[in-house]
Design goal:
324 residues; 16 helices; mainly alpha
Length: 324
């Protein structure tokens, strides 16, 4: 969006005559440009993606996943998670709905990991801000993490550690007939409702993320960031993961922070680890998940995802270092 960047150049430096080299003007420019850009992309992309998602209501998603078992089921669960409009706060109704459909716990967890972690809208926003390599890498590793996590849950029979009320839910008969899809007008209404709902839900985190990103980009010295999160620090991925877990934000709130860190020379793997920790392991989402999962299941989930994030982060940093 060169036109948008030039617009804020004109407003800040010509209309208000700010010093182009000052820290304040740099913060303002980063904040205004990234905020408007993210919201413009969100509005358009969420509307278009929601039209696609309207073909996959929860009942139809469960019906599709019911056809598959084993690793194939995990793959389909992870892939459907990327195109369905669920976030980590939806974990309880999704869990109950999938249990009613008689889905194995492995497929359910593959879906639950990928759904808040990866979606089509976030892919396009990542593509716009961070380039195709990071965008594609994030989607691929997110799906792999979801598949492996769900497969391990199934292999270790974690369904025995669901809360009792979930285990006692009687599965529905999958042969009750096809799910009725919404009409065209209903799809467009759904898409617009999704835009309003998601923007309303994530706008504070976007503003916070852009604010943090603007400070990182314009205030914090590159040498300091390189010392803490640079590839010379063997604990950089671990630190990024630990910092990300207590935060609660949509992936769109992490993108401006990631953009600023990338501009300061932080490794791609460290950035991906931070983004994944925020979206997949935030404390509020784990509190919600605890309502349907006993402690052992929750600890297993956190352990699998954390180990996966660390492996992915260090692997990407190593590949980046080898590639120069």
């Amino acid at each position: 969006m060169t036109w948008l960047e030039q617009l804020f150049d004109w407003v800040l430096f010509d209309v208000f005559s700010l010093d182009q080299g000052s820290t304040i003007s740099g913060i303002l420019h980063f904040f205004l440009y990234d905020t408007v850009k993210i919201f413009l992309l969100l509005t358009v992309l969420i509307y278009l993606v929601s039209l696609i998602q309207s073909h996959f209501p929860p009942e139809r998603t469960a019906a599709i996943l019911h056809r598959y078992r084993g690793i194939k089921g995990n793959v389909f669960g992870a892939l459907l998670g990327t195109i369905t409009p669920f976030c980590s706060c939806s974990s309880i109704p999704i869990f109950i709905g999938f249990t009613k459909a008689g889905l194995p716990i492995g497929i359910t967890f593959s879906f639950l990991i990928s759904s808040p972690l990866v979606d089509l809208a976030s892919f396009v926003v990542l593509l716009s801000f961070l380039g195709w390599k990071i965008a594609v890498g994030y989607v691929v590793v997110g799906i792999i993490l979801a598949v492996v996590g769900g497969w391990w849950m199934e292999r270790t029979k974690m369904e025995n550690h669901l809360q009792d009320f979930v285990k006692n839910i009687k599965p529905l008969d999958p042969s009750n007939g096809p799910v009725q899809l919404p009409r065209r007008s209903e799809r467009h209404r759904f898409a617009w409702d999704q835009v309003k709902d998601i923007v309303h839900r994530v706008w504070p985190y976007i503003l916070i993320g852009v604010g943090i990103g603007s400070v990182i980009h314009n205030v914090i010295p590159a040498d300091w960031i390189e010392t803490v999160l640079g590839q010379d620090n063997p604990f950089s991925v671990f630190i990024a993961t630990v910092v990300g877990i207590p935060m609660y934000a949509d992936i769109f709130g992490t993108i401006p922070i990631a953009e600023a860190l990338l501009g300061k020379g932080v490794g791609v793997g460290t950035i991906l680890a931070f983004m994944m920790a925020v979206t997949a392991l935030s404390v509020p989402s784990l509190v919600l998940l605890k309502q349907v999962a006993k402690t052992r299941l929750l600890v297993t989930f956190v352990t699998i995802v954390t180990i996966g994030i660390l492996i992915i982060g260090y692997a990407f940093n190593t590949l980046q270092w080898i590639g120069g």
